[in-house]
Amino acid sequence: MNKTDSEKYTLQRAGVSEQIFEILKKKIASGEWKAGEKIYSENEIAAQFGVSRMSARNAVQRLCAMGLLETRPGEGTFVKELKLSNYFKEALELFDLNQSMSDISEFRRFFERAYLVLACERRTDEDIQDLKKLHNQLCQLSVGEDFDLFFETDMAFHHRICEMARNGVFLMVEMMLHDSLMTQLKDNTKLYSEVKDASFDKDSDHYILKILANEHADFIEALEKREPALATDHLDYYISSYNEMRKKD
Questions:
Q1: Axis crossing angle, helix 168-176 with helix 84-92, rounded to the nearest 10
Q2: What is the C-alpha to C-alpha distance for residues 101 and 97, in angstroms, rounded to an integer?
Q3: How far apart are CA 38 and CA 55, in angstroms?
Q4: For 68, left (φ over 0), alpha (ψ -120 to 50), or beta?
Q5: DSSP symbols for 118-171
Q6: Per-residue pLDDT reduced to its tens digit, 10-60
Q7: 0.85 cut: is pTM over it?
Q8: Distance (Å, rounded) from C-alpha 189 to C-alpha 181?
Q9: In sequence order, what are the beta bridge partners of 69?
Q10: How far apart are CA 129 and CA 164, in angstroms?
């Protein structure tokens, strides 16, 4: 930040702290003040705006509370890196997952359809090879009893598809919803086992993990053929099956 900047501001007398807050926030959001950059001291801000130090401090403290600034003792106040993922994470912590599960299921139907379509368009041969490796791991885990590791690999499989969409916002949302989606995935497995009349006996040919692992090949086929309609048909079938069984519970 250029300390020789002598820019002055004329404020309305009512709500001066709020006005300072909005101006400083705009400097951060626009990139004029960059991440890691030291900003003016409270005294300098007060002088620049022609207000009391208390008004300047209130504005700075609000920006710190929002995670846009951070104060380091003995050093000053600095601009923090703006990460939207932090705001998503905080918002999700307020969710009651038990009450929000149907909302997540509804959202997932449209969200996953969208990135599946992009993935079919943008995937590379290397992406397909990576997905096949994850599918092989899933198949190996499907003959065991480590449900948690199976589900983590299942999530990694879908995460890899989301990466193929090559859209940072989709990827960020998918990562932030990881825990919620994992909870739903485990719940859906029980429901899907009823759709398929599957067993939880790992020695059975109808062991639910074997069925799930094998059916993931459908997504690979659709992506390899670049056929978004085929990919979304598979997704719609799974989610519709879950929803029908949930209605019966």
A1: 30
A2: 6
A3: 19
A4: alpha
A5: HHHHH--HHHHHHHHHHHHHHHHHTTSS-HHHHHHHHHHHHHHHHHHT--HHHH
A6: 566 557 888 999 999 999 888 899 999 999 999 999 999 989 999 999 999
A7: no
A8: 12
A9: 79
A10: 12
